[in-house]
Amino acid sequence: MKKTLLAFAVMGALAGTASAQSNVTVYGVLDIALNYADNGAAANSRTYSLDNGTQLPSRIGFKGSEDLGGGLSASFQLENGFNSDSGASTQTGRLFGRQAWVGLNGGFGSVKLGRQWAPLFLALAEIDPFEVGLAGDASLMFGAGSYPLRTDNTINYSIPAMNGFSGQVSYVLGESPGSFSDNRQYGLGVGYVNGPINVQFGYHNANTTAAPSVTDTKHAFIGAVYNFGPAKAHLGYGDSKLESNTPGANVKNRNWLLGLSAPVGSAGTAMLSYIRNNVRDVSDANSTLVAIGYTHALSKRTSVYTSLSHTSNDSSAALNGAAANGNDPTLFNVGLRHKF
Asked: What domain range is 111 assigned to?
């Protein structure tokens, strides 16, 4: 209760600031859906629920900037996530678990310090026809669902956009006593957008030191979207490695994404996705997801959506909510999303 009251007090104070300064924005998303999930078990496998954030996680945030003169400006973003079906926080004790950073911007590009998106996840979100949401969320499959979304203690530098090219690097301090390298992470993102072509590359390396084992997790992703008029073609490839000094603990994944998205009338978008997760070091541990979806804009801020997916797991795989290895889950949802 005390944490909740504190959160409201901070948000109220920031909202007061927002009303006094035109460069501070209060924004948010409310997303809720009726969901059906069958985990593939022989009995009692079906669940019906009203869930939060099926297309986009519900949130409230504050962002703004200050002109410092000479082409230099300061910026910040604070973002809190919550369950729209219950009002409960999704932040596991954090006040602003989705975003919490401050930065400087200028002709040199931008520098941001704090909790923020991982460049790898941003690259995947650009290519996924479902925009890493709904039942076709590619992040649930790529790297066996272990792709990093955000990182704490992050220093991020983004170059100025030039002739369609963009790029960013991030470094995550491990904050381990006596060691600069233990538990550190770093990432890279490069993009190129020109006319109908959108190409994205992302990389993330996480070093985890927890005696007696040392583990390096490495993810790489490259993908492209081509708009050929009536529809967009989506193609992605990912490679993930978990390298450990514990014998037999190494895991390697390869992932492929093939997708299609197309406008339906003036307000609708249909999506189709095929994703293959291939585990190279474990027998019979591959998974395949097929998903279809549709979103329809009722206005600039409000939309309805639906999606359906089915995941086929090999006998040693259990991705996307399967009850056990070898089970094949099915997901279906119908939802409403409002932005403010």
From this structure: 33-73+104-339
